[in-house]
Amino acid sequence: MTENTPGTLLRDIDSINPVMPYLRQERIPHIWCPSCGIGTTVNCFTRALTESGMNLDEIAIVSGIGCTGRVAGYLNLDSFHTTHGRAIPFATGLKLANPRLKVVVYSGDGDLTAIGGNHFVHAARRNMDLMVICVNNFTYGMTGGQVAPTTPLGAKQTTMPFGNYEAPFNLPFLADACGASYVARWTVFHVRQLAKAMLEGLKKRGFVFIEALSPCPTLYQRRNKRGDGVDELKFYKQNSVVKNGADTKELGLTFNGPIAVGKFVDRERPTWLDAMNEHLGKVLGAEYLPWEGGNG
Amino acid sequence: MNLTSPERQGKGTVFVRPEICKGCSFCIDFCPTHCLEFTKDFNAKGYHFPILARPADCSGCDLCGLYCPDFAIYGERWKDIDARQAKGPPAATASAPKPIAAPRVQDPEPADPKGVLTGIHFMDGDHAACEGALAAGCRFAAGYPITPSTEVVERFAARIPMVGGVFIQMEDELASSIAVQGAVWGGQKSLSVTSGPGFSLMMEHIGLAAITETPGVWVDVQRGGPSTGLPTLPGQADMMQAKWGSHGDYEIIAIVPNSPQECFDLMVKAFNLSEIYRCPVMFMMDEVVGHMVERVVIPPASEIKVVPRKWTHKPKDEYRAYATSKDDPVPEMTKAGAGYRIHVTGLTHDERGYPAMNAVAQDKLVRRLIGKIRDNADKIMDVREDGVEGAEIVVVSYGITSRIAMSAVEEARKRGVRVGHLRLVVAWPFPAKRMRELAKTAKVFIMPELNMGQMVLEIERAVAGAARVVSLPHAGGSVHEPETILAAILEVGR
Ligand SMILES: Cc1ncc(C[n+]2csc(CCOP(=O)(O)OP(=O)(O)O)c2C)c(N)n1
Ligand code: SF4
Ligand code: SF4
Ligand code: SF4
Ligand SMILES: [Mg+2]
Question: Is residue B466 within 8 angstroms of chain A, CB to CB?
């Protein structure tokens, strides 16, 4: 635990990076590329966990497959690395089996909104009590930089070698339209705001969607002559406009255009499980055994 | 230099682990006071790393820590450092796992009476299968409507509110077949139900359950295929898919009931086997068995034996989620929320459950996943034999076809043919050893099945030329005529 900086000559054996207690330390260093933003989002998430004061034994994390999907394997929580696109239905079963758990889905844009798009829209519609963190790097990182449902028009990807001509999703609009209880977008430049959104998400009941724009320097930025991760963070800094409460229709992203960030939706709707318990209790009366997870 | 040194200049300082820095410069560029700089030195990986070049300017705000994607730097305020030092080292963050109330051994227990509809009923196989699941302690089911299996989940949806549990109709079979696995890791026993094309969609998650050793039962009420095929008519053509349908090497158990009563009884057995071996169990019904209404006797809960999960009771620092021993190839299990902080992945993994991307780990894991079933095939085997000892002809069948085969066998015996009947209750693992034994006296095996010749290949493989093997294929949509099977018996018996 000694973390000694040549520049400061400091020694403090009790000192520990605040992220470390949340990581499976024996698995660090991680596999992510230099200046990839995924690790930055993990810092924000762990700060949110600290702030939340929640019992970490009651938080489970579910990822799909992709670079972001590896987050589950690094966090020292009950963690599940499932199949590509299916983190949300796995998380749905986990949450319903034991409603006392706070279940967080942490995955990539391709995973959650291409192959997993159907599950995403239905979980939002049902207001399943899940917090979904989507690291949107506009690409399929893990498989080498193919076009994603989020790739801005014009951007080059290996399967759009002459530039993307397919219209991308506006994810906050999608989540809002499907009924999410909480929708926010930040970038990895906005570390404090992102951590705060994650904290709010942890405290919120219902379907929470947090989009974190993040560089994939290896496959998106460089291929599109946007420099490195740090250049992309500077781009976020210069081009982001905070628009809390904005109409989500207006939040589409373009290759070089402004980036609307902020909290867009924060509303109360009964969760799927609350609705089930309430409805069946009303209809079936004393016959109904409300579900709280049993002894599971 | 120590922490009380007069060299304290700013309000805070930073700590760096140069060896894991990847030189991204996030910390340097986004430090609000610009007090960091890259060293001229390189770390072992060849990256420059940051140093606190202007200590007087550092506020200890930890923005660098928030930005650093490699967890290589963070900042702290002096006053927080001092407070922490005064308090002493931080208390261990890990809490002790909560004991799970369950016996240490996997001894069968009586069923929970809440789920048991004791009595004599007239119900179809689909409903009986649902009752079997409830009796076995299943409290979570997920499905997507598809003929002829829908009645299983319809009944579950109607019954579970009074039993205590959840049914959810998911958006497709990809979702239902993994939602049930989430529920298992949440501590429940779970059931997924489908037919035809839905079974194809579930295949990826059969592989996931196999590699993550997630117990559970997958019902396939077989209909005619391929594709949409014959939605309302029977087939038995998913038998090979049940075993081989997901990619990669793995083993499953498959059970084939031939009556509504068996849909109940064998469903309990299916859950029990899935808990013992921690593998997916395929419950291979067919449209006729699913829809036929017969007497179903559901015994009192105390007479139904239910195998509990193989819960671990190890202390947290000793428990390794996928550790096994020579004597016991099935790891102990836990669930989310129990305090163990497990990692479960569909990647090849080591004993801790951590990804291990190499041929050695692959060999160890895959051999164990397969060995735990193959090495126990004799224990798992369940065949129902009738007059096979010394018979020259053995008819082998399963599911609905077995009922027709039995009547054909009886008729042939009346006509003086020495013919036995063997019914596969457990179709996978295939009872190859038993077939080889029978092949010592039997000259011919006849296998009628509602497919163009699937399980018959297993008989051929098992007896390896020691006896003749006759296939009686049927493309599905109806069942065999008893006369067809009888004619085949008489033909070979001549
Ligand atoms: C069924 C299936 N199809 C395809 C793949 C290959 N695959 C792995 S990750 C991935 C895309 C990942 O993109 P994203 O979710 O955006 O994550 P990122 O790597 O960008 O963080 C794909 C297509 C797979 N694992 N499974
Ligand atoms: S490929 Fe892209 S997303 Fe994946 S680790 Fe590298 S930079 Fe990050
Ligand atoms: S703690 Fe704050 S001021 Fe000090 S180096 Fe880090 S970012 Fe800069
Ligand atoms: S942010 Fe981290 S990885 Fe990047 S240069 Fe600074 S210490 Fe190194
Ligand atoms: Mg991506």
Answer: no
Q: Full-prediction pTM beyond 0.80?
A: yes
Architecture of domain B12-87: 2-Layer Sandwich (3.30)
Question: CB under 6 Å to ligand 2: residues?
Answer: A 32-33, 36, 38, 67, 137, 141, 216-219
Taking the Cβ of residue A191 and every Cβ of chain B, the question of whether any pair is shorter than 8 Å is answered with: yes
**pLDDT reported for residue B94:** 55
Cα–Cα distance for residue pair A232/A219, rounded to 1 Å = 13
pLDDT digits (tens, 9 = 90+) for B133-192: 999 999 999 999 999 999 999 999 999 999 999 999 999 999 999 999 999 999 999 999
**Distance, CA of A96 to CA of A131 (rounded, Å):** 14
Residue B99 has pLDDT above 70, yes or no: no
Residues of B in contact with A216 (CB under 8 A): none
Work out how many CB contacts closer than 8 A connect A with B.
Answer: 294
Which A residues 127-186 touch B at CB under 8 Å? Answer: none
A287 touches chain B (CB under 8 A): yes
Token pair 């997993």: residue: A116
- Count of CB atoms situated within 10 Å of the CB of A24: 17
Token pair 């053995």 in the structure block, residue: B394
Q: Residue ranges per domain, chain B?
A: 12-87, 109-306, 382-493
Taking the Cβ of residue A36 and every Cβ of chain B, the question of whether any pair is shorter than 8 Å is answered with yes
Residues 206-245 of chain A with CB under 8 A from chain B are: 228-230, 233-234
Ligand 5 center–CA B404 separation, angstroms: 55
Residue B207 identity (one-letter amino acid): G
Distance CA B261, CA A137 (A): 54
CATH architecture of the domain formed by B382-493: 3-Layer(aba) Sandwich (3.40)
Spatial distance between the Cα atoms of B301 and B177, rounded to a whole number of angstroms: 28
User: Could you tell me the fold of the domain covering B109-306?
Assistant: Rossmann fold (3.40.50)
| A79, A122, A230 ranked by CB distance to B25: nearest | A230
Amino acid letter, A251: L
Phi-psi region of B454 (alpha: psi -120 to 50; beta: other; left: phi over 0): alpha
Nearest CA to ligand 1 atom 20: A141
Closest residue, chain B, to A69 (C-alpha): B345
At B201-234, the pLDDT tens digits run 999 999 999 999 999 999 999 999 999 999 999 9
pLDDT at A6 over 60: no
* Backbone conformation region of residue B337, classed left if phi is above 0, alpha if psi is from -120 to 50, else beta: left
Residue from A134, A219, A221 to probe ligand 2 pocket by mutation (most atoms less than 8 Å from CB) = A219
Q: Is A66 in the pocket of ligand 1 (CB under 6 A)?
A: yes
pLDDT, tens digit (0-9, with 9 covering 90-100), for B110-142: 999 999 999 999 999 999 999 999 999 999 999
Kindly list the structural domains of chain A, giving each domain's residue range(s) and its CATH number in brackets, ordered by start: 30-271 (3.40.50.970)
Any ligand 3 atom below 6 A from CB of B484: no
Is 70 exceeded by the pLDDT of residue B356?
Answer: yes
What number of other Cβ atoms are within 10 A of residue B112's Cβ? 19
Residue A9 scores a pLDDT above 70: no
Q: Is A2 on the interface with B (CB under 8 A)?
A: no
Mutate to test the pocket of ligand 3, among B11, B16, B34, B35 (most ligand atoms within 8 A of CB): B35
Rounded CA gap, A265 and A242, in Å? Answer: 14
| ipTM given for this complex | 0.96
Phi, psi (rounded to 5 degrees) for B347: -75, 155
Query: How sure is the predictor about A8, in pLDDT bands with cuts at 50, 70 and 90?
Result: very low
Domains B12-87 and B382-493 belong to one CATH topology: no
